[in-house]
Every structure is written in structure tokens, then in C-alpha cells.
């Protein structure tokens, strides 16, 4: 890793930990749990593990294309943008992720403060609660 | 070490250009520089391999025995001599001294430079598994690797031992596999992802490719993670996968990917991330040093294909000589054509299906053709073609030029000839232009004229046409044409067809179930290909349905697809609104024991379950269990002899009983005993939807058998059987099916009814709406017309149970699928913030 990125990115382990078409969880003590997904196309995504609707755990949803269907009430959420798809409205904060040397890295700042990111951006985590 | 110094003592009047890398990028750069400014530089090329400049892409045909090394040389010794280029080959550059402006080679040569070009390419990615350094483990990067593979194949031929494993099912791995197979080796490809070439292909095209490669005799293992390479006497002997599978191998080829070769640049202090960071003019963080090819990172992207690298070489030469457009390199959209002979695969652009993009999919099952175009804002942004790649270049051109395709959108998928043929705007136009005797449905030999006369005779829907003139009744690939003919003939009068399985297909549930059996379809991607799915990998509606239909159709043969299961069936527990789970152990017929109750009480305390509740199905539900604790909870329950209650599944739930003749003064038969027997015969079976049974010991019906999917009411003279009840949203009292005399008959009828429901109902259709849809008379005719039907259905159910009556909790408790239950890691913010 380049020296100026050390510290910015959080190593969450090898890419092989996630099976294609599934999500896994990363609890953040005192913060928001994160869901990390691998699509069948081989793309990785990380989002706060809460559906904008009733906060269902997206990590346990069915992954198809680059969206996930929430296990509680079948909202479809874009893994790319965190936005609810179809007729539903809402948004889950996404966490910048990169793959390097066979390992997954999350942007440390976003891991620590998805709430802050939510406040700064258009994504409002708690609106539909 | 070889060195060609045509002019060893040339005075240093000209600028000294040193190029590190004698490969495709390095030499092309020199060619471009020479074309712009011949004689301007003193050029030295340093190459690690002891040979002249050759075409690395053509190593695959060399491996396959289709070409010799001499055939793939790009620039032979004469080129270096003619252009006064000094070549130092077989002596890699080892250090760049930016202060002194020199490059030092391993052999100790010190070469001064004014401008330096780094073109070190990339290194194969070696998976750091145990045994990766054994003799017989090779990569696929240069001619030495190819020689090693050929030697292994030849040795195998003489020793009669010729198994090869290729780790990596990408472009490189598949080419290695193809070459080794042509050289007589038995090849197994082990691929980490679920789809071959997942960077270039989507799931559907990857599946077709896999079919073809398997037909050619390769063994393909996907979602296969190599755990270790096994050795014997210092040589490779095989590999073992994470799931414990062992594969024998005399040769292991690591083709798991490449990474930019940046070690030299990094050691010199140049800015590197994934690759050596360059600007649009290919200049690194040191203005005297440029870099080009696979080793660079430009605007965040690294490239491993040749076309972008040629563009980079031009930009670099422009910059170095000051001749040319000077616009620099602006990044590339790439396309791939698979070179394995006889298989036509093409992909370009972005087909990951991002926000706001739409798919146009065409499948021709009979010809093994799959085409998918991805469109966004009226621009083509991605394309995947399999089987027919004739229009690949046209699509790639539209894609690169960002052309507005609104005008030709509807006919785009049919290719350039059709889209440009004037029929462009109207998809019906081409159909209208067909002559009356043109064959529309190839399967049933139906002409356009025959379809139109059937429409005129009153067949006003696709379904009606399928049953009258048989058009589109078999493979369905002509459905679009038939729909166009309906629209052309009837205008707005077309009747809406029956409800399709979901938006991904024009087939109904019944069509899909029938075609799975008729056409031997055995996997989800195969169903989607053969039945012309309009989405690449289905949706949350069709995937679970197809998974169920396949596991019902092919017991023991179909491998359950966990990624097509809803969370409850994947985690074998019921998800609750707070994301925790509830756990219901099976209590046969609602009977329990002190041992079971103690085990449940212990679990409730040990895992701090906030609530334990008696369910309506006569058992106990433990609430508030975290997914990571589920395996331990199950282990504790298993230890007391309890198994999964499947309270979470589209499956047999419970068999509710009353105490019957054993205790009750009104009881006529042993209803608890029969209930336990039925539950023991039926538990574990997956169904279209949940399925509840009850057995009441007398007509007082305390077990409420007449609102269950299958209910038995015992009477003095035997057993009354009732079906299709439901106590849910819409209460429905059962229909009386028949009365039988013995317990054995009651059991056999129950199994037969369940199997008929499993084979005939739509996914997520309870027995109540199913019977209302089909009618009680239909049901009775199914079961009772043929005297052997009941025993045949029951036998099929028992066969299925051989594979499904396995406690899913036991495997999880023993550690299976632990990834589904464990977190990836845990983040502790305080420790992180300190580190910052």
C-alpha cells in the first residue's frame, strides 16, 4: 500500500471470506454494523447494514445483480448507491471499499462515522424508522 | 546474459533513453519513438528474459502446439541492430538511482539515462497457500513457463500420469487449460468465483462457456477455494480445497491473476499505488521517468489488455519526442474476445448493471447464443455476446463513440445488418416483412401464414396459439415473433396472457415446471438460458422458485443453491424485526420430555433469550438468538436429541395432535401415535409453501385438523382425510378427500397428497388457493383415477426424503457454513481512533 494511504484504509481481511452472491457482517463497537457483499459478477460493496425502511439486516438478503432484497419486507436496495429501488424511497449510507493484493479495505473515516456521513450527504439513515 | 551493443562507444551527444522491459509495451514504445524522431535518442532496452521481443499474447498457441516460438517474435535481432538499439537481455534491472540518473542491472552494469521508461509489465499473482513453492507449480507468464508446462505434459505422456490443475478460471487460466488439454493432459480448472471469467462475462454467458468446456472434457470447479497444494517427495501431487475435496495433479498452473510489477519503481521512491502512478502523458512522479503498460496506474485504472497499452505507447512517444497530438492518454474502454478456438465470446464496457442502466437480453437456446446489451441514458455502455460475436465490433464502436442509440434501440440486439436495414424503428416491421410461408416456429414447423389464420380463427393470445397451431409451444424462442404477429393482426385486441412466473420471463410457473422436466434442465443458469430469461441472473422472486422447482424435480441430483434461498431457509431460523432469530426445535406430534424441556430451559438461560413462547403448532419457540450463537444453540439442542423444527421453511412445519385413544375418554384411534409417525416420515421436506398437518382422535377435532393443509379426523371405523384448509389471512375449511380404514392407508394418502402438491403447485402457493385454482374434482381425479397413482406419488416422496431428511442444524453445529454465522471481523473504534 502506498504510504499516504496508510491509516486511511482499514484492512478487513482477504477477499476469499465472502462467497459470491452473499453478504457478511462487520460490527462496529458503538457504531453502525456494516454489511460487505460480493456479487456474482465479482464486485464488492459495503453498506451500513440497515434497510432504510425498518432497519432490516441487508446482509441476510438475497443478492441479485447489484442489488439486495431486504429480508424483512422485500425492499430492493442498490448496493452501488444505497438507494431504495422501484417505488420505495430511502437510502442506506455506503462505505467506500477497495480491493488490493487480495484483501478488502474500507475507508476508515466512513467506517467510524456512517452517521456523520449520513448527515453530510443525502442519505438519511433514520427517517423511516 | 546477452548484450547487443551496436555502437558501444557512441559519444554521449544524444539524449540517453533507457527502457526497462523488453516486452510488448517496452518495444512498442521504442517503435513509436523511432517513428517520430529517428536518431534522436541513444536507446538501451533492458530485458529480464534472455530473448528478443516476442508477442506474449501468442504464448497460448505455443502452449497448444499451434505455433512455435519463432512464429511469435515481433522484433528479431536485426531490428535492434538496424535501429542502433542496445539490448541487455537476461539481466534484469535491479535498481534505479534517481540522483545519479542511472540504472543498475543484476549483472552490475551501470547505465546512465536522461529519460527512463519503465515497462516492467506485471507479475503473476501467486496465491500464498501452503505448497505454492513445490516443484511442478508453475505460472503462465513467459516462455519459460510454457516450456515447463510442455515438459510436464510430455513427461506425463511417458509416465502415464497426466493430471493438471489450473487455479483460476479467467482468460489466462482457460487458455492454459485449453493448451494443456490439447497436449493430452486431464485438466481440472479450479475457480474461486461462481462464474468463469467473471470479469468479462456475466453469469449466463459464463454458464454457457462452462457447458462448452465441460463438453470438451475439462473438469470445472467453481466457488472452489484452494486451501493447499499437496506435495510428495518435494513434487506437487495435488491440491486440496477449503471444503476438503482433494484433486490429484502432476502439474499445477497458477493463473489466479496478475499484479502490476512495481517493486523496482517503488524502491526508487516513485509514487505507486496498485500500479506506478502516471499522468496523461505517462510521466511518473519523477519528470525524468515515464512508465507504460501493465505496470502503470492511470486515472485509477490498471490495464491487462493490449489495446489500451498501444494507446499508452503512442501517448508516451508523443510526450517524449514532442511530436504528435500531445493530447495525452485519456483512459480506455476495453473489450475482450476469448481466443480459445471455436468458442466465440465477446465482452466490452460495463455490464455490471449499475444505477439507471437497462438490459436488453436475447437468447437462442437451440444455437447456444446469448446476447446482452446494457443501455444507460440512450447510450450503449456494455455488451456480452456468446455464441455469435459477429456484431461485437459494431457494438464496441457504438460504445466507444458514446453514440445515441435511441432511434435504433428496439432493433439493436438483432445486430448491425438488421438495425441498419431500415426496419430500425419498429420491431414489428421485420415480422411484417416476412412472407406468409416463412417458418416462425422451428420446433413445430409453423409458418407465419398458419399463425395468422389461427389468430383469425379466434386464438387471440400466445397461450391460445400455443394450444391451437402449436407456435411457440415448445422452446418458446419464437414467442417475441408470435407476440408481434398478434399485435400486427389484432391491433389493440391482444388478450393479456396468463401471469408469468415473474418479470424476468414470459413463461408461467406451469410452463417452467413442465420444461424443467421435459428438457432435463438441471441448474438455475441452464433454466434461464434455455427459457430465454430476460435478466442475466433473475430476481428475488424467480431465484427461490427455480431453486425449489429444481430440487423437487431432481432429488439427489440437484445441488441446492444457497444464494437463492430466503434468509430463514439459509440460516435455518426465523429472522425477527430486530435482526435476531427465533429457534424452534421439533417436538414430534407435540410431545416432549423432561430431558428436552431441560435442554430448552438451559439454552434460554445460557444465551439470554428474552422470551420463550408456546407456538400454535404445539412446540416451543426461543426468541432473540443472535446469528453467531445459532450453531452453539443447535449443538446444545442436538445433544438432547432434538432436531430442526423447520418453523422457518417453505416445508413441513408441524403435525398437531390431540391425546387420542391413549388418554382421552372420547378418543377413537391413537391420534398422537399416528401424528408422530407422520411427522417422522415427512419432516425435512421442502414444499412450494409451508405445510401443516393435524391428527384429531375423534370428531370433536381438538387438533383443529379441518383448517390444516392435510388433516386427519379419526372415527370409530377409520380415518377421514381432509385437505386444503388454512387458518391464516383467509380462513378456509378443508375439503373432505376420502375415508380410509387403516393407519397405513392414511399415511400413504398423506404422502401422496404432499408429493402431488410438491410437483404441481406454484412456488409460494398454499394448498388452499392451489385447490381452489385447480378444483377438488381435478385433485380427486389425479389421485384416484389410476389405482397405482397414490403409491407412485408416495414412492417419489420417499425418494426425495432420502436426500432431504437430514437435520440441517447438525451440520451447522459441527461447523459447516460457519461463514454464514460469523462476522467478518469486529471494528473497535477507540483502538482505531488511537491509531489515526
Question: Topology of this protein?
Answer:
The complex is a heterodimer of chains A (129) and B (836).
Chain A: E1 9-14, E2 22-26, E3 34-38, E4 44-48, E5 62-64, E6 67-69, E7 76-78, E8 97-100, E9 103-107, H1 108-112, H2 114-120
Antiparallel strand pairs in A: 1-9, 2-3, 3-4, 5-6, 6-7, 8-9
Chain B: E1 2-4, E2 15-20, H1 24-36, E3 41-47, E4 53-54, H2 59-64, E5 73-75, H3 77-82, E6 85-89, E7 93-97, E8 102-105, E9 110-112, E10 115-118, E11 122-124, E12 137-139, H4 143-159, E13 163-167, H5 171-182, E14 186-190, H6 203-215, E15 219-221, E16 226-232, E17 235-241, E18 246-248, E19 251-254, E20 258-260, H7 263-267, E21 276-278, E22 289-291, E23 296-298, H8 306-321, E24 335-337, E25 345-349, E26 358-364, E27 369-376, E28 379-386, H9 392-400, H10 416-419, H11 427-433, E29 439-441, E30 446-447, H12 448-456, H13 462-468, H14 479-490, H15 509-518, H16 524-530, H17 542-553, H18 567-571, E31 574-575, E32 581-583, H19 594-606, E33 611-614, E34 620-625, H20 630-639, E35 652-657, H21 660-663, H22 671-682, E36 691-696, E37 710-715, E38 718-723, E39 735-740, H23 743-760, H24 767-774, H25 776-784, H26 789-804, H27 808-813, H28 818-821, H29 829-835
Helix pairs in contact in B: 1-8, 6-16, 11-14, 12-14, 15-17, 19-20, 22-23, 23-26
Task: Walk me through this protein's architecture.
- The complex is a heterodimer of chains A (129) and B (836).
- Chain A has 129 residues and is mainly beta.
- Chain A is 9% helix and 30% strand.
- Chain A has helices spanning 108-112, 114-120, and strands at residues 9-14, 22-26, 34-38, 44-48, 62-64, 67-69, 76-78, 97-100, 103-107.
- In chain A, the strands form 3 sheets. In chain A, strands 1-9-8 form a 3-stranded antiparallel sheet. Chain A has a 3-stranded antiparallel sheet with strand order 2-3-4, with no helix packed on it. In chain A, strands 5-6-7 form a 3-stranded antiparallel sheet, with no helix packed on it.
- In chain A, β5 and β6 form a beta hairpin.
- The N and C termini of chain A lie far apart (40 Å).
- The model of chain A is unreliable at 1-6 and 124-129 (pLDDT under 50).
- Chain B is α/β, with parallel strands linked by helices.
- Chain B has a 6-stranded mixed sheet. In chain B, strands 12-19-13-14-15 form a 5-stranded parallel sheet.
- In chain B, β17 and β18 (246-248) form a beta hairpin.
- The longest helix of chain B has 18 residues, at 743-760.
- Chain B starts with a strand and ends with a helix.
- Classes of the chains: A mainly beta (129), B alpha/beta (836).
- The interface between A and B is large, with 55 and 57 residues.
Amino acid at each position: 500500500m502506498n504510504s499516504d494511504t496508510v491509516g486511511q484504509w482499514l484492512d478487513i481481511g482477504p477477499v476469499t471470506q465472502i462467497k459470491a452472491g452473499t453478504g457478511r457482517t462487520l460490527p462496529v463497537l458503538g457504531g453502525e454494523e456494516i454489511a460487505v457483499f460480493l456479487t456474482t459478477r465479482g464486485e464488492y460493496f459495503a453498506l451500513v447494514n440497515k434497510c432504510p425502511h425498518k432497519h432490516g439486516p441487508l446482509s441476510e438478503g438475497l443478492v441479485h445483480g447489484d442489488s439486495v432484497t431486504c429480508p424483512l419486507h422485500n425492499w430492493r436496495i442498490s448496493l452501488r448507491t444505497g438507494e431504495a429501488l422501484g417505488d420505495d424511497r430511502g437510502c442506506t449510507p455506503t462505505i467506500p471499499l477497495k480491493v488490493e493484493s487480495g484483501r478488502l479495505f474500507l475507508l476508515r473515516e466512513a467506517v467510524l462515522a456512517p452517521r456523520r456521513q449520513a448527515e453530510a450527504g443525502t442519505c438519511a439513515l433514520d427517517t423511516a424508522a | 546474459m546477452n548484450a547487443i551493443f551496436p555502437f558501444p562507444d557512441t559519444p554521449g551527444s544524444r539524449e540517453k533513453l533507457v527502457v526497462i522491459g523488453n516486452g510488448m509495451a517496452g518495444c512498442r514504445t521504442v517503435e513509436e519513438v523511432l517513428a517520430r524522431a529517428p536518431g534522436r535518442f541513444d536507446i538501451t532496452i533492458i530485458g529480464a528474459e534472455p530473448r528478443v521481443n516476442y508477442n506474449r499474447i501468442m504464448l497460448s498457441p505455443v502452449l497448444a502446439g499451434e505455433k512455435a516460438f519463432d512464429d511469435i517474435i515481433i522484433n528479431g535481432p536485426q531490428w535492434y541492430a538496424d535501429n542502433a538499439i542496445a539490448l541487455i537481455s537476461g539481466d534484469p534491472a535491479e535498481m534505479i538511482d534517481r540522483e545519479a540518473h542511472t540504472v543498475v542491472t543484476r549483472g552490475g552494469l551501470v547505465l546512465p539515462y536522461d529519460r527512463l521508461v519503465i515497462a516492467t509489465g506485471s507479475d503473476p499473482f501467486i496465491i500464498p497457500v501452503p505448497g505454492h513453492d513445490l516443484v511442478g507449480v508453475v505460472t503462465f507468464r513467459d516462455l519459460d513457463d510454457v516450456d515447463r508446462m510442455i515438459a510436464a505434459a510430455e513427461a506425463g505422456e511417458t509416465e502415464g500420469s497426466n493430471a493438471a490443475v489450473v487455479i483460476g478460471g479467467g482468460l489466462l487460466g482457460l487458455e492454459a487449460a485449453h493448451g494443456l488439454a490439447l497436449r493430452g493432459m486431464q485438466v481440472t480448472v479450479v475457480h474461486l468465483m461462481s462464474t468463469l471469467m467473471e470479469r468479462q462475462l456475466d453469469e449466463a454467458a459464463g454458464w454457457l462457456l462452462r457447458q462448452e468446456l465441460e463438453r470438451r472434457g475439462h473438469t470445472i470447479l467453481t466457488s472452489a477455494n484452494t486451501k493447499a497444494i499437496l506435495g510428495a517427495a518435494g513434487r506437487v501431487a495435488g491440491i486440496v480445497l477449503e471444503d476438503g475435496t482433494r484433486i490429484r495433479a502432476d502439474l499445477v498452473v497458477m493463473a489466479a491473476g496478475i499484479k502490476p510489477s512495481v517493486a523496482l519503481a517503488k524502491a526508487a521512491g516513485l509514487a505507486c499505488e496498485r500500479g506506478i502512478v502516471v499522468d496523461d502523458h505517462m510521466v511518473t512522479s519523477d519528470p525524468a521517468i515515464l512508465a507504460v503498460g501493465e505496470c502503470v496506474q492511470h486515472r485509477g485504472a490498471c490495464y491487462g489488455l493490449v489495446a489500451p497499452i498501444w494507446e499508452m505507447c503512442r501517448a508516451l512517444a508523443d510526450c517524449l519526442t514532442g511530436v504528435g497530438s500531445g493530447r495525452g492518454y485519456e483512459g480506455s474502454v476495453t473489450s475482450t474476445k476469448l481466443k480459445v478456438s471455436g468458442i466465440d465470446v465477446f465482452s466490452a464496457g460495463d455490464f455490471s448493471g449499475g444505477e439507471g442502466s437497462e438490459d436488453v437480453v436475447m437468447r437462442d437456446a437451440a444455437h447456444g447464443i446469448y446476447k446482452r446489451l446494457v443501455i444507460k441514458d440512450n447510450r450503449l455502455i456494455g455488451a456480452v455476446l456468446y455464441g455469435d460475436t459477429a456484431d461485437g465490433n459494431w457494438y464496441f464502436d457504438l460504445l466507444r463513440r458514446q453514440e445515441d442509440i435511441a432511434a435504433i434501440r428496439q432493433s439493436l440486439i438483432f445486430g448491425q445488418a438488421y438495425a441498419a436495414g431500415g426496419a430500425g424503428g419498429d420491431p414489428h416491421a421485420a415480422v411484417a416483412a416476412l412472407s406468409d410461408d416463412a417458418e416462425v416456429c422451428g420446433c413445430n414447423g409453423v409458418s407465419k401464414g398458419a399463425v395468422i389464420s389461427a389468430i383469425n380463427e379466434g386464438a387471440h393470445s400466445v397461450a391460445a396459439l400455443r394450444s391451437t397451431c402449436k407456435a411457440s409451444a415448445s422452446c418458446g424462442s419464437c414467442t417475441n415473433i408470435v407476440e408481434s404477429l398478434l399485435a400486427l393482426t389484432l391491433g389493440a385486441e391482444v388478450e393479456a396472457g396468463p401471469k408469468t412466473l415473474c418479470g424476468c420471463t414470459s413463461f408461467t410457473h406451469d410452463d417452467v415446471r413442465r420444461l424443467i422436466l421435459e428438457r432435463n434442465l438441471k441448474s438455475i443458469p441452464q433454466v434461464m438460458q434455455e427459457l430465454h430469461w430476460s435478466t442475466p441472473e433473475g430476481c428475488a422472486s424467480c431465484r427461490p422458485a427455480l431453486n425449489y422447482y429444481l430440487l423437487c424435480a431432481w432429488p439427489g441430483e440437484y445441488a441446492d443453491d444457497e444464494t437463492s434461498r430466503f434468509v430463514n431457509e439459509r440460516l435455518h431460523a426465523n429472522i425477527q424485526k430486530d435482526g435476531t432469530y427465533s429457534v424452534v426445535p421439533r417436538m414430534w406430534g407435540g410431545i416432549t420430555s423432561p430431558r428436552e424441556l431441560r435442554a430448552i430451559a438451559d439454552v434460554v438461560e445460557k444465551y439470554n433469550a428474552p422470551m420463550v413462547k408456546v407456538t400454535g403448532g404445539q412446540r416451543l419457540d426461543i426468541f432473540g438468538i443472535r446469528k453467531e450463537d445459532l450453531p452453539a444453540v443447535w449443538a446444545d439442542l442436538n445433544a438432547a436429541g432434538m432436531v430442526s423444527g423447520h418453523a422457518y421453511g417453505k416445508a413441513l412445519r408441524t403435525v398437531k395432535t390431540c391425546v387420542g385413544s391413549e388418554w382421552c375418554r372420547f378418543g377413537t384411534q391413537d391420534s398422537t401415535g399416528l401424528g408422530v409417525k407422520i411427522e417422522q416420515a415427512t419432516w425435512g421436506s421442502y414444499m412450494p409453501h409451508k405445510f401443516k398437518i393435524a391428527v384429531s382422535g375423534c370428531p370433536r377435532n381438538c387438533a383443529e385438523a379441518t383448517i390444516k393443509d392435510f388433516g386427519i379426523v379419526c372415527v370409530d371405523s377409520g380415518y377421514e382425510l381432509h385437505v386444503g384448509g388454512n387458518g391464516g389471512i383467509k380462513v378456509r375449511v378443508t375439503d373432505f378427500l376420502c375415508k380410509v380404514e387403516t393407519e397405513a392407508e392414511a399415511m400413504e394418502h398423506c404422502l401422496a397428497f404432499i408429493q402431488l402438491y410438491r410437483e404441481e403447485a406454484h412456488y409460494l402457493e398454499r394448498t388452499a388457493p392451489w385447490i381452489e385454482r385447480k378444483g377438488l374434482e381435478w385433485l380427486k381425479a389425479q389421485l384416484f383415477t389410476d389405482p397405482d397413482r397414490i403409491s407412485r406419488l408416495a414412492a417419489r416422496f420417499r425418494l426425495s426424503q432420502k436426500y432431504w431428511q437430514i437435520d440441517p442444524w447438525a451440520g451447522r453445529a459441527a461447523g459447516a457454513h460457519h461463514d454464514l454465522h460469523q462476522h467478518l471481523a469486529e471494528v473497535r473504534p477507540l483502538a482505531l481512533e488511537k491509531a489515526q
